[in-house]
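Progress note, sequence design subtask.
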């Protein structure tokens, strides 16, 4: 399996590191418009691979060298600076996607290629990449709220004193400030969250829930203020998504893909396997969550109309 990564800044490098450390693919090709940067990344990661798995890592000087890739990860573009929202990146990163997608399509097999979008604002970039590529929605997949859901699961796990692996809880909608925590369908193991709290006598009051939502929404801002950018969490998320596709795991992930009827991309629980994001599921939503999800979709649509 050959995978291409486009954009070798903080995020692309973290993605490449995560993939290298799991030996998920046998070949990775790295492209950045700054060729010096991608060459340095390929050299450094290539040396590191001698300590883990024998992954062939090369830098591409042109898009011709991504030929043979079955999955392309796009992590190129401007990132948020302290004080910026993801939406502030809209027009700059729309141009990055407009630059990259036609070149990717000219050098990969349109019948099989899967494109993973990481660039923000995520959902609008998924819609744009889908439009430009002409690929089926199932094969243009945004990491969506995978990372936000991981943040929620981690915070909940600490509050409930169980492993995050045993928490099934989703953040839905925009990968951005309007994302929605879906308390209504949250489970610990197979036990609905409210039942779990009742049985274990661990209270999770409305105030605590609002605080958790605030922490999930603000996680990226806090990390950006502290270390300039976020990369480890998203690196692990992309690796997890790739694993799910490459091994045809058919796990449920909160990825962002274009819905066939509305043509709008936002994160929903989705079955992901070798064919891509194959089935979008509708979880139980409280009336307030349903309303918030509609508001979130309207924000994505408005941003899409602005590019
Ligand atoms: P960065 O500035 O460190 O790196 C961006 C890289 O993209 C640079 O190396 C640059 O040369 C390259 N690039 C820009 N335009 C290009 C083009 N047209 N072709 C090829 N390469 C190009 O930024 P970063 O911190 O790595 O963030 C990258 C993107 O990932 C940002 O949009 C950021 O907001 C996003 N991000 C998404 C998530 C998520 O959960 N989806 C999480 C973190 C960051």
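Output:
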């Amino acid at each position: 399996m050959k995978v291409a990564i486009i954009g070798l800044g903080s995020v692309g490098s973290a993605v490449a590191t995560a993939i290298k450390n799991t030996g998920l693919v046998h070949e990775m090709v790295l492209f950045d418009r700054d060729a010096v940067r991608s060459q340095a990344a390929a050299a450094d990661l290539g040396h590191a691979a001698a300590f883990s798995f024998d992954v062939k890592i090369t830098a591409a000087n042109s898009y011709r060298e991504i030929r043979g890739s079955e999955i392309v990860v796009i992590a190129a573009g401007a990132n948020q600076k302290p004080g910026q929202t993801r939406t502030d990146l809209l027009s700059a990163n729309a141009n990055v996607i407009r630059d990259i997608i036609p070149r990717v399509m000219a050098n990969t097999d349109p019948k099989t290629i899967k494109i993973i979008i990481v660039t923000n604002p995520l959902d609008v970039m998924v819609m744009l990449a889908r439009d430009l590529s002409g690929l089926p929605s199932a094969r243009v997949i945004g990491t969506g709220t995978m990372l936000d859901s991981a943040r929620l699961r981690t915070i909940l796990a600490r509050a409930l004193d169980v492993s995050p692996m045993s928490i099934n809880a989703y953040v839905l909608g925009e990968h951005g400030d309007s994302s929605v925590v879906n308390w209504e369908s949250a489970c610990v193991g197979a036990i609905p969250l409210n039942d779990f709290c009742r049985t274990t006598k661990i209270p999770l009051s409305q105030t605590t829930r609002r605080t958790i939502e605030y922490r999930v929404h603000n996680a990226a801002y806090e990390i950006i203020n502290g270390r300039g950018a976020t990369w480890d969490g998203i690196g692990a998320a992309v690796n997890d998504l790739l694993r799910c596709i490459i091994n045809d795991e058919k796990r449920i992930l909160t990825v962002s893909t274009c819905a066939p009827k509305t043509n709008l991309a936002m994160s929903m629980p989705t079955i992901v396997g070798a064919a891509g994001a194959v089935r979008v599921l509708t979880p139980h939503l409280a009336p307030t969550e349903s309303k918030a999800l509609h508001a979130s979709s309207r924000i994505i649509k408005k941003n899409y109309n602005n590019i």
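Residues 6-12, 32-34, 37, 75-80, 89, 93, 96, 99-100, 118-120, 122, 143, 147, 175, 229-230, 234 surround nicotinamide-adenine-dinucleotide (CB under 6 Å). Work on this subtask will continue into the next period as scheduled.
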